[in-house]
């Protein structure tokens, strides 16, 4: 049942984002920022953990999950370091995901020979 919940929740998130892209004039970058911020807000209120327990990877893999990870890092850093943790926490927890995106993007560019759009 875990796989089914992950599939339908992740699919629903992706479908809603696709509808948002198709029906509005929002650019993909802005929609991605919206998803990260929405994940952080949901995490702030404490609703993301129960959601992730139910949906598993369907909730943790989309950009909502990245916002949750950033907020968790900020919460931990603030509890340890006070006000300065607001600036440290997101960088510590988000660094792995950003680094992986850069490394795998570079490796993909070596394999697939990217071309500039003209």
SSE layout and pairing:
Layout (H helix, E strand, L loop, with lengths): L1 H22 L4 H17 L3 H8 L1 H4 L2 H19 L3 H28 L6
Helix-strand makeup class: mainly alpha
Helix content: over 70%
Instruction: Determine the strand fraction and express it as a percent band.
Output: under 5%
Largest sheet: none
The count of strands amounts to 0
Description:
The structure is a single chain. The chain is mainly alpha-helical and 118 residues long. It has one domain. The chain is 83% helix and 0% strand. The protein contains six helices and no strands. The radius of gyration is 16 Å and the shape is globular. The model has no long low-confidence stretch (mean pLDDT 89).
Task: Throw out a few tags for this protein.
0% strand; 83% helix; 118 residues; mainly alpha
How would you concisely characterize the structure shown here?
The chain has 118 residues and is mainly α. Helices cover 83% and strands 0% of the residues.
């Amino acid at each position: 049942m875990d796989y089914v919940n992950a599939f339908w929740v992740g699919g629903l998130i992706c479908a809603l984002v696709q509808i948002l892209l198709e029906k509005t004039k929002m650019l993909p970058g802005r929609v991605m920022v919206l998803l990260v911020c929405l994940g952080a807000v949901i995490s702030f209120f404490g609703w993301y953990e129960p959601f992730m327990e139910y949906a598993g990877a369907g909730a943790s893999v989309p950009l909502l999950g990245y916002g949750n990870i950033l907020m968790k890092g900020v919460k931990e850093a603030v509890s340890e370091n006070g006000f300065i943790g607001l600036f440290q926490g997101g960088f510590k927890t988000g660094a792995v995901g950003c680094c992986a995106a850069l490394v795998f993007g570079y490796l993909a560019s070596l394999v697939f020979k990217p071309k500039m759009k003209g």
